[in-house]
Amino acid sequence: MAILRFKALETVNNRKPISLDFPKERVTSYFGMYVFDKKKMNEFLSPEVYKALIRTIETNQKLDPSLAESVALAMKNWSISLGATHYTHWFQPLTGATAEKHDAFFDIDGDLVLESFKGSALVQQEPDASSFPNGGIRNTFEARGYTAWDPTSPAFIMDTQGGKTLCIPTVFVSYTGEALDNKTPLLKALNLIDEAATHVVQYFDKDVKRVIATLGPEQEYFLVDSALYNSRPDLVMSNRTVFGHAPARGQQLEDHYFASIPPRVQAFMMDFEMEAWKLGIPIRTRHNEVAPAQFECAPTFTEVNLAVDQNSLLMDIMERVAEKHDLRVLLHEKPFAGINGSGKHNNWSMGTDNGKNLLSPGKKPKENLQFLTFFINTIKAVHEYADLLRASIASAGNDHRLGANEAPPAIISVFIGSQLTELLESLEKNSDVIEKGDNLYLKLGIDKLPEILLDNTDRNRTSPFAFTGNKFEFRAVGSSANISAPMVVLNTIVAQQLKYFKSEVDSELDKGTKKEVAIINILRRYIKESKTILFEGNGYSQEWVEEATKRGLSNITTTPPALKSYLSKKARSLFVDNGIFNERELEARTEIYFDDYVKKVQIESRVIGDLALNHIIPTALNYQNRLIINAKGLKDLNLGEDSYKVSLDTIKEISERLTIIKTKVEEMVEARKVANNLDHSDARAEAYCEKVKPFFDTIRYHVDKLELLVDDEDWPLPKYREILFLR
Ligand code: ADP
Ligand code: MG
């Protein structure tokens, strides 16, 4: 009998929501208590050092070494006062996860044991990090990489069952200065967009000194009971179920979305949200998602670098807190076949240092022209670099969502809603604009852009990149991703586009064209040049696939070809010329992505093989043996052929399916061997994608059929209907 499965089911039946000690205080009194924010800096630093540090942060400068000692001392005193015993540099290597290596504060000085944290330890560390992926940048003999403090993201205290640790957000670079992490290029891209956008805003508002890109990432996830999780080796090994027949009831009743949240889940949400609040992560919304057992949370948006750090931290917190509730969080993009997968909608905009959202239409004509400038330039950037955006979200997990008949398609397009579509159409159709005083705006229909845009309800859920009133929402990002990569690409391409726009406007101004006229005429040309990327219809439909092909848009459904765009001539010059990556970094990074893809698919393939051979085949054979005894017995009774027909047919079907499963597993193993022997990572990735992965569906198809055939009492793996309906 399937002992593990039934034990797990019994455990689940007896679960109760765990009772939590909610803080009595109001949220505002503990929000950010574990963050070394301005308030604590002010409290623990001298006024001079405080001012200098704030200036460093606000102007994105490197920390003046002479401040390091005082800042380190203040951080140490603050964190020790809250019970911290260790500190760590906290960074985001290219594994996608976060990394930390803890050091104790205490130090021994002669006979004295004291607590120390030197400025040098704050500013820079050398973790022996030779086993982080580096794409060939660091040979092991020069294994040194170092981490360096990023003062723009505040230090925080991680409070776990294992104690409290001061965490210092850092970049991670090789000894020779090449980026080995997700943060380094992100900081560069954010500086780039700040500079490029500031120059353009100044056409409209001379007072703006800085532009800050903003991000609010919505996080989707699944929750499953940990007992059931532990009895599914595929979930444990690869974070997704490689087998499992669809339950009789999936998401077709649409009764889960926004329905009341199950009590155990709500207790978990409350718990992790409070942990997040203490760390200053402004989680605001929570709800059920479309698929059963799927949920979502979203923070209030903030500056991109901080939002990325907070999202990484949040994923960590969620996983940790879930265990306390005997739950497991599945951040995988597609843990279950046949129901929706999970994404991470990246709500993105740009704001000025005087508090104006550049993607928010204003009340005055001039503000509307400013809005249109940033709006249209973003569309143009997406049009120019759609393949790069696609590359930035490519992963083995996300391949199951993109291009698999569900949200969103692999074709990058932009949804802007009917009102703005009309506006762009009329702008485009007007003949060349000449100066007519204020009539200029009137004639173009941008004298009063409706402010109701925000309430614009015709939201298109099928679009990978949608304008939603005052921000763009990049929806194709995968739920488990470190969102630096898509943010590096998005901010870099928009910055590049804004730089280009400025050069075009300036050359018009040099010719004596009036500013507004120059801007409008250039924008109108951009509308023409990039309108193939605009799409308002159903992104899941076959018609769109055909239409997109006609328009010349790419439809790259898998990771290996998507990643190639990182190495195109266009991408190289974009990244290298803008100082985001040098050639070596770009190649190393892409190699790491290819390798990561290979590893993920390889693990899945092994899990499929093991489960098929060790779980499914023996189970089916056992059941078949019982049927054989049954059939023989019935035959002996001489009741006629009909009496043992069911047994006989089932015996035959089991044999047929088992033969296919066994053969396909063997062929898959052979295909893996061939792939493993290829020299280059891109070729290996391609082989895994095209030669190994196709076996998955075939093997699964027959295993899932067997699930319906074999006695339920025997089936070893918890079934979808048991995993997906959490109470
Ligand atoms: P929905 O599910 O309707 O898309 P949510 O409330 O779940 O809406 O998420 C919207 C997200 O967009 C939130 O994280 C919100 O803070 C964020 N957001 C709002 N304005 C901006 C902005 N100007 N820049 C970046 N993100 C923003
Ligand atoms: Mg959204």
What is the strand and helix layout of this fold?
Elements: H1 3-13, H2 27-30, H3 38-44, H4 47-58, H5 65-81, E1 84-91, E2 99-104, E3 106-109, E4 112-115, H6 119-123, E5 124-125, E6 145-149, E7 156-160, E8 163-174, H7 183-201, E9 211-225, H8 226-230, H9 233-238, H10 263-278, E10 283-288, E11 294-299, E12 302-303, H11 304-324, E13 327-330, E14 344-352, H12 365-384, H13 386-392, E15 414-415, H14 418-429, H15 439-444, E16 465-467, E17 472-474, H16 484-510, H17 515-530, H18 542-551, H19 559-564, H20 569-577, H21 583-636, H22 645-676, H23 681-692, H24 694-709, H25 720-723
Parallel strand pairs: 1-8, 15-16
Antiparallel strand pairs: 1-2, 3-4, 5-6, 6-8, 7-8, 9-11, 9-12, 9-13, 9-14, 10-11, 14-17, 16-17
Helix pairs in contact: 7-16, 10-11, 12-16, 12-17, 13-16, 14-17, 16-17, 21-22, 21-23, 21-24, 22-23, 22-24
Bound molecules: adenosine-5'-diphosphate (ADP) and magnesium ion.
Short synopsis of the structure:
This protein has 727 residues and is α+β, with helices and mostly antiparallel strands.
